[in-house]
Amino acid sequence: MMLTRDLVGKVVVTLDGFHVGKVEELEISEDWKVQNLVLRLTSDAAREIGIRLSFKPRGIVSTAHVKGVADYITIDVEKAQLKETVKPHK
């Protein structure tokens, strides 16, 4: 079992090692399941996704894309598929 503090601040990477960002928040559903990770994106990831660079670009990724959690979180896509997986967070 993991605690929220175990995930917040972890680095998120793609299968091919591209650094996407860090977990900033968790979105929890009404039935108390973690649905999405809210990420503070790197500037390279924001450009790759097509998010306008701002002071703190943020993106959201479904936990369905999480492949593994260890020292960092790996999502199940490569850099080329990032735009379809990570969406802008409002």
UniProtKB/TrEMBL annotation:
Residue ranges occupied by any PRC-barrel domain in the UniProt entry: 3-81
Record-linked InterPro entries: PRC-brl_dom (IPR027275), PRC_barrel-like_sf (IPR011033)
Name of protein: PRC-barrel domain-containing protein
Organism: Infirmifilum uzonense
